[in-house]
What we know:
Blueprint: H1 4-16, H2 29-36, H3 40-52, E1 56-59, E2 63-66, E3 74-76, H4 83-86, E4 92-103, H5 106-112, E5 119-129, E6 132-142, H6 151-154, H7 158-165, E7 170-181, H8 184-190, E8 197-207, E9 212-220, E10 226-228
Parallel strand pairs: 3-10
Antiparallel strand pairs: 1-2, 4-5, 5-6, 6-9, 7-8, 8-9
Helix pairs in contact: 1-3
Amino acid sequence: MASKHELARKLRQRINQGEFSETGKLPTEDQLIEQYQVSRYCVRGAIAVLAAAGEVFPVRGSGVFVREDRVGNYMPIGSSNGIVADFPDRKVSSFVQELALIRADKQLAKRMRCAEGDQVWRVVRLRSVNDQPISYETAWYLKEYVPYLNEEIARGSLYAYMRDDLGLTFGFDDKVIHMGWLTAEAARLLELNEGDPAICIEDDAFLSNGKLFNASRNLYHYKNAKFYSMASMR
Length: 234
């Protein structure tokens, strides 16, 4: 039986394909239960995942409505789907600057919640949307959960690879957002100036069993990248 996250992913694909554009809302709970042969708990959990990401909003007595697309490079701050999933109808490119298998030192081991000396993939990429630079990304993946990586894989969606090819089941993601400053290398790739401000998002991503498998530090282009979050009003 599908988990709420798997069902949310399937519904997100249908949303991105415009399947619900005519009605503007998802099928009913009963219809989704019948279509996917899942429990009501699973359906409600999947809708909660989509609602938290700002993709749908439930209206009591009326159904679950799909939120309108935003014009521009907007990314949901509460979602951890990855840039490829955030922009399904646009050209998303990843330019690999570094791909190395390293041993965790004391500082990295603390961040990755692993032992010193454990093997960790270090991946540095420039991400762009419709040929506009969006982010300079430095990410680490525990080899325990990601046994193999190459540049071809890293040029695509790493989360899709880990989910679809490695069979990892994602759980939750912790984010810390703060202001950062561009190094010479990051500035060059983002087509900005060294020392320019950048939106910095630190991510710790966990599997469904609560184990951390990925940490990252993302420096976002202060002009090209925009974020949004859905908040309920009481």
